[in-house]
Amino acid sequence: MDGRLDRFSGPGEGDAILLRGLLFYAHHGVRSEERVLGQRFRVDVELFLSLREAGKSDRLRDTLDYGEVYAVIAEVVERTQARLLEKIADTIALSVLRRFPKVEGLVVVLEKLSPPIPGAMESVGVRIVRTRQDFASELADSAASALPVAPSGDEIVPSEPLGRS
Questions:
Q1: pTM above 0.85?
Q2: Dihedral of the CA atoms 121, 74, 105, 129 (nearest 10)?
Q3: 152 lies in a domain?
Q4: Would you say residue 164 lies in a domain?
Q5: Amino acid 143: pLDDT
Q6: What is the number of structural domains in the chain?
């Protein structure tokens, strides 16, 4: 690690939620053929947050809904287009931090499976480590547009757009 996540190593602060082997077909790459034809990608994420309360309460509102995390990642990978894996990974990190205030930091591993590179290889990829501090200005800008948590904390209720009756 690069030291930015050292504070997560204390007692009770080393908790993490893991999502491994998320598979997607998407249209990213430097070459135009990659963006037109598409290819397979694999994502692993490690989300740093306290799981202490969820361990005691056994309530979903005290942790994260893994399906919602998957949906945020899928939205980025499948519905955006970028040339570089670095850009996609960074966008995943920002999107997760925007959507889930409990997450203090995360590791994103993004791999392009069977890349169009001469030679035999399973994948190429990037691994990034990000914290809320890395996106302080972006998160502050988006705070007003965040979706509110329902009173039970177990589901998300979309905001009504202003000016609509």
A1: no
A2: 20
A3: no
A4: no
A5: 65
A6: 1
